[in-house]
């Protein structure tokens, strides 16, 4: 079996993600790669195999629950922006402009 080595840029184009996302996944150990000198190369078949295993290990209900919880908590927070606080001389009602 012949190995197909690809760069991070090529892998990012294949998966439709940013190149930095590929590097981040490599650094965190989510996808395997080999460092050859200064460059990092990825075995395409090995990356597909690992990603398929990770997808099968996580049930769909858990994926959906994680997304729903994250979105709901962000909507519930209703934080006010620090810029929404009224400051400055325009708010104080200076009459010098009249």
Q: What level of helicity do the residues show?
A: 40-55%
Based on CA inertia axes, which overall geometry fits? extended
Structural class by SSE content: mainly alpha
Strand tally is: 3
How many helices in DSSP terms?
Answer: 5
H/E element order: EHHEEHHH
Q: How does the major sheet shape up?
A: 3 strands, antiparallel
Strand content: 5-15%
| Rg (CA only) | 24 Å
User: What is the CA–CA distance across the termini?
Assistant: 83 Å
Mean pLDDT, to the nearest integer, reads 77
Main sheet: strand order:
1-3-2
Query: pLDDT below 50 for ≥5 consecutive residues: which ranges?
Result: none
Briefly, what is this?
The chain is mainly α and 98 residues long.
What does this molecule look like?
Helix 1 crosses helix 2. The protein has 5 helices and 3 strands; from the N terminus they run βααββααα. It is 54% helix and 10% strand. A 3-stranded antiparallel sheet has the order 1-3-2. A hairpin with a 2-residue loop joins strand 2 and strand 3. It is mainly alpha-helical and 98 residues long. The protein has a domain of 66 residues.
Provide key terms for this protein.
98 residues, mainly alpha, 54% helix, 10% strand
Helices and strands, with pairings:
Layout: E1 5-6, H1 8-15, H2 19-27, E2 34-36, E3 39-43, H3 44-57, H4 60-77, H5 89-92
Antiparallel strand pairs: 1-3, 2-3
Helix pairs in contact: 1-2
